[in-house]
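Q: Sequence in, structure out?
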Amino acid sequence: ETSLEKVAHLALKYDLKQMPVAKSRKFLGVVSSRKILSTINTALKEDIFHFAGVHKSHLDFENSLEIPIFKVLKDRLFWLIFGLIGAMSMAVFIGLFEETLTKYLIIALFIPAIVYISDAMGTQLQTVFVRDLAVLGKDLNLRKYILRQICIASLTSVVISILMFAFISLFWKNPFIAFVIASASFLSLIITGFTALFIPLIIKKLGFDPALGGGPVATVASDMTSIIIYFAVVVWLL
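A: Exactly. Output:
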């Protein structure tokens, strides 16, 4: 059996207005262009809502002004509170390193950079991965795909870390601290890449839509992972 999303993808790929449907070599009919466009539109809106942390029941409304206010609050607050809990947990964790931060203030200066870059890279990886899972399904060679994405994430992390090392060395004139922060950044980005790939995979294995792993879930997981790895490496090297 082939999903409607995959049928729509094939229609776009081969520039077909209609897709024939067959079973056991028997022609059953066609999927019309209207159905193909409707499928693409629905899938796109679902993914956007998932990544934004908005419940998919909002798809039932063409106009967002028609959605009851309390329903919007209920659906949005869950993910925002989830994110708040994650943020508070990170604040408590960072507080454990108050002595280190007081001694090496420069470490604190690069926390926003680490969090932002980790989020950005995780979002890039996850967006493409979720799309490929939805479109290719069982045809996706997961082992080869994950190894390729990890390789790309590793090379990206190397480039970012080298640039960070050069920047800190140039402006703070401290190659050792630059090395410590760059090393911590490298490992944070690598682990974030793993997290971004495996969250949708685990969610898919549990029988849910992989896109549920995007948005707030991915952001909190990425932030917590990057901060923990960052401080662990910094403290170990210092």
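The first strand starts at residue 19 and ends at 23.
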